[in-house]
Structures are given as structure tokens and as C-alpha cells.
Amino acid sequence: MNENFDAIVIGTGQAGPSLAVRLAQSGKKTAIIERKLYGGTCVNVGCTPTKTLVASARAAYMARHAADYGVLVEGIPRVDMARVKARMDAVVRQSSDGVRKWLHTTPGLTVIEGHARFIDNHAIAVNGTTLEAPQIFINVGGRAAVPDIPGLAQTSYLTSSTILELDELPKHLLIIGGSYIGLEFAQIYRRFGSMVTVLEVGPRLISREDEEVSLAVQQILEGEGIRFHFNAGKMRVNQNGTSIALQAESDGKPVETSGSHILIGAGRVPNTGDLGLENTGVATDKRGYITVDDRLATNVAGIYALGDVNGRGAFTHTAYNDYEILAANLLDNDPRKLSDRIPVYALYTDPPLARIGMGESEARASSKRILKGRMMMSRVARARERSETQGFMQVLVDADTKKILGATLLGIEADEVIHLLLDVMYTGAPYTVIQRAMHIHPTVSELIPTLLGDLRPLDEGR
């Protein structure tokens, strides 16, 4: 059986539902297809559940440190993982159910549950039916990458998705990967009470960051009792009953440890392997990501790729911005493009790390004259009042145009404060606009004008 549509959206992640609703509202006969989880990665196995766990972990941490604030809590605070998981599941369910209801109640939108595979450029097979449309939007997301480690396939390993199913506290959690996913879970479970050991194949954590940022994050996490091994190689795992033995080399020296659980936090791969793209002319890169142009179009007319699957930003906010760009270009006659986007993201350790634009190493590699402002969080009254003075704030400015080029904030409320600088960057205004603003005391944000009032040439000693 064949059915024709004006537009088909594959996947209900952050970009897909909003686009499908807009297409339906514009009068297009639209179908949206979901294989399993309404809301995609973010709602089900990404931002929503993990940040709910971050909140529970922070509560546990603050309870243990209550005496530092003059608050006496009798006995040792205990984490009930079953209740932690139940809270997380409830938050996830509310979000996922909301997406499902929204789509099923949108007039003109057909919701199909099943696995979609391309038959040709503009035909998709799902549940024994062939759907055809001149416009197809791919929003299938990604999944955890699993490296080829000897013995791993015979081990009960966890990924960033399956670890969310735990309702018990690991005695010792081994983590392969010292980047964003691995570090968030490392701190979460350390604060819950687990021993945590992280093995990173590179020489330092979060390698895309400047070295001083990596070291600062490492010191914060080591201060909470997390152990790290770098330049890890020749890894081998072996399951002995309920224990997992791990052998490796770290900086050329042998490492042997064992844990109750092992988490693979080695990045993500796109869900393009079983999409039937071989039946189309759609081009992918060597990692399997669908290649798109500045307006999210693939090399095949009428086919677009949004969200994690296009490799242009593996974040919820970049996925939603993909939807906004497509809707503006296709429905609103408002030309927009990917290259107008300023890179921005956060690592949700506590304190969080927030980044926009250029880092210092990138700035040094440019031909620009750079001014740099740097301030330790210990100077911030809000941080001192909360006894959370770890980290720093740093901003880079073009000395000739006076425009902000990038910023790195590691500290209390950094993930919120970073938007002050981001918004000024989007306006194209000089840094002096915010440097002369009056902010409320006591806040973290009030120190941004002070920081910008003390800019120095990049290589000047501080």
C-alpha cells in the first residue's frame, strides 16, 4: 500500500516535532515517524534524565556538607537509588508523554510508530506501507559509541542510556572516556557514594578544551575523590561473577583495577546505519553523519537532515536551532543559515563549564590582536557566600573591532551567566556595551563588566 504526503519527518527528537507541527499548520499533509522514544535522546536518555540525576547528586553532596553552612543533619545522609530513579523516570515520562500528546492532537499531522527505511530518494517503507513525499526531513539522532575493547562484548557493560536503568548504587564504577558524558556520570555517582575511576585514551580530559580548562576540571573532580588514568591503552576487560576486571596501560605503565560496573562514555555515532540510505543518493561522511549545506539540505533535492545526525552540533539547542533555520527558510521567507550560529555549550559538572566562540588556543592561532580578561571565581561575592569558589571566568576580545570572540566560564551558575556574553556577540556590539552596564549585586553576572574592564593583551603576564 502506498500513501502520499507533502512532507515526512523521521524522528521525534528536539527538531522533528516542532518542524512537523509547523509543516502541518502551514497546510502541508505531513507525517512524522517514531521508532521507539517520543522526544528522542534529550528527553529520554540525554539532558532530561541526566540533569535530573545531577540535581539529586547535588542534593546528596549538599546534605553531606550541611555542617559547613552551620546546618546540622543527624546521621550520615543515605542515597536511595530506587527513589532517585523513580524521580528521574517521572520527569522523563512527563516530557515524553507531552511530546506524544502534542503530536497526536495536531490537526493535519499523521503520527506513525515504526522503523522507517528509505526505498529510494523520496519513498520510505514503514510497517509494510510505502510513504512518498517530495520533502523528507531526517531527525534520527545518535547513540552511544562502543569501542572494540577485548572482552567487552562478553561483559555486562553500561552505556549512557543503559546506566539510566540502574536502581542500585555501583560500589565501584569504571568509566571509559574522560569527556562530557563520562565526567558528568563520574561526578553524579561519586556524589551518590560510589568509588569512581576514569580511563581516558588522551593525555587529558575534555580534549577540545584548552589545557588549563581541562586541568581545572580535573582538579575539581579529583578533589571529590574521582581517580583518573590518562593515555590509557591496551585495555582488556573480563567479567568474574559480579566483578569486572580491567587491565590497561596508562602513560606506559600497567594498570589493573576491578569494579562492580563499567560505563562506556566514548562518544556517540549517528543512527544512519539502518536507515536505508544506501537506497538513496544521500551523502554521508566517513563517520556516517549526513552531510548538509548551510541551510541543512543534503545533496539530494528535497531531503534535509536535522539534529545530531548531521554532525553540525550534538546538542539539544543546536537541534532546535536546526528546526528554526529550516522553518525560517522554507515557511517564513526569512533566510537563515548555519554559519550564522555561534558555537555554545556546557559541561554539567558542578560547577558547570560553559563555552562560547573561540578558545584561547584558537585565538592564538588566528591573525587577530587579542585582549584577554580573566578572573578567579574566588573574587565573586556570590561564590564566596555559597562557599563555591572553584573555577574562573575568561573572555577574549578582538582588540581592533572590540567585539567579543569567545568566553570560558567555569564556576557557579556559569551555564546561565554565559548568555550575557553570547547575546552581545549575536548583536555584533562592542564589549563596551556590557562593560558599561550596571548589574545587580550580589550576583555572578555583576562581575562580567568588571572582568571586561580589565582586559590585557593575550600574551601579557598576569
Keywords:
29% helix, globular, FAD/NAD(P)-binding domain, Enolase-like, domain 1, 3 domains, 6-stranded antiparallel sheet, alpha/beta, single chain, 5-stranded parallel sheet, 462 residues
Helix content: 25-40%
Strand segment count: 24
Looking at how many chains there are and whether they match, the oligomeric state comes to single chain
**Overall average residue pLDDT:** 96
The rounded distance between the terminal residues' Cα atoms is 71 Å
What number of domains?
3
Based on the structure given, which CATH architecture of the largest domain is correct?
3-Layer(bba) Sandwich
What is the percentage of strand-forming residues? 15-25%
Biggest β-sheet: strands ordered side by side in the sheet: 19-20-23-22-21-24
CATH level-1 class of the largest domain: Alpha Beta
Radius of gyration: 24 Å
Describe what you observe in this structure.
The longest helix has 24 residues, at 81-104. The protein has helices spanning 16-25, 40-45, 47-64, 81-104, 180-192, 211-222, 316-331, 360-365, 381-385, 414-427, 432-435, 447-452, and strands at residues 2-4, 7-10, 30-34, 109-113, 117-120, 123-126, 129-132, 135-138, 142-144, 172-176, 195-199, 227-229, 232-240, 243-250, 253-259, 261-264, 268-270, 303-305, 344-347, 353-357, 370-376, 392-398, 404-410, 456-457. By secondary structure, the protein is α/β, with parallel strands linked by helices. It contains twelve helices and 24 strands. Strand 5 (117-120) and strand 6 form a beta hairpin. Helix content is 29%, strand content 25%. The protein starts with a strand and ends in a 5-residue tail after the last strand. Helix 1 runs parallel beside helix 7 (316-331), helix 3 runs antiparallel to helix 4 (81-104) and helix 3 packs parallel to helix 5 (180-192). The chain is globular, with a radius of gyration of 24 Å. The model has no long low-confidence stretch (mean pLDDT 96). It has a six-stranded antiparallel β-sheet with strand order 19-20-23-22-21-24, with helices on both faces. Strands 4-3-2-8-18 form a five-stranded parallel β-sheet, with helices on one face. Strands 1-7-6-5 form a four-stranded mixed β-sheet, with no helix packed on it. It folds into three domains: 2-143 and 269-340, 3-Layer(bba) Sandwich (FAD/NAD(P)-binding domain), CATH 3.50.50.60; 152-266, FAD/NAD(P)-binding domain; 344-455, FAD/NAD-linked reductase, C-terminal dimerisation domain (Enolase-like, domain 1, 2-Layer Sandwich), CATH 3.30.390.30.
